[in-house]
Amino acid sequence: MWIAQEVERKESCMKEVDLAHQEGREEAHQILGSGVVIDYLVVEFLL
């Protein structure tokens, strides 16, 4: 189950990841941390 605050936090992180993702997945990993990138990839997969 998604929690509203968690969704908002992830959406904010995803915006940052989207910017970093354009520069390469490795940079996104370094900038935002592996947990956020993994969350992003899981969310992307589920969508």
TrEMBL record:
What this protein is called in its record is Uncharacterized protein
